[in-house]
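So, read this over?
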Amino acid sequence: MISWATHLDTSLLYLINRGGENFFFDLLMPFMSDLSNFHYPLALLAGWILWKERKAGLALLIFIALTLAITDSFSSRLLKEWVGRIRPCQVLSGVRLLTDCNTSYSFPSSHAVNIFAAAYFLSQPFGRLAPVLYGFAAVVAYSRVYLGLHYPFDVAGGAGIGILIAWPMRRLKDRALERLGWAGQGGARRGKKTAGGGG
């Protein structure tokens, strides 16, 4: 079973990394994979959330920051070291590498863990934009495979881990808002209407 899954994972990697090769993706995927390219848009989004949602927005941003601190530490410092999976760019021949091959372990993809955790949180106040948020997260995750830095199962597992960690944190945030009397504001109110679509 494990050998079959490994074979499938490797086959999908080559399909995306080599079979999906094209000039546009060669430009787009390195950009999408570097999350520092989105610092300014994210800062503007945070400012808009604070302006629009006030106290509820502040709580949302605080809990997102806490969640990302948890997801990043758990995936990078604990889970990767425990699983110890070597990156495909280090062990497979014929992998097309468009950037430097990271020396850390491969499973899970911390990019996928963090970006899907953030997408899950933001899908609450921005329920109608949930497909866009998850679509953006999916492109970032896909870029890691396209660049030869991760196996597909690394990013798929990372996405699931990110959402599983973000789910109780979002519930904790909602309860905190209720206790503080801010539950009727902005994201908390709309979150009750769109919770099904966001998760």
In short: The chain has one domain: 2-198.
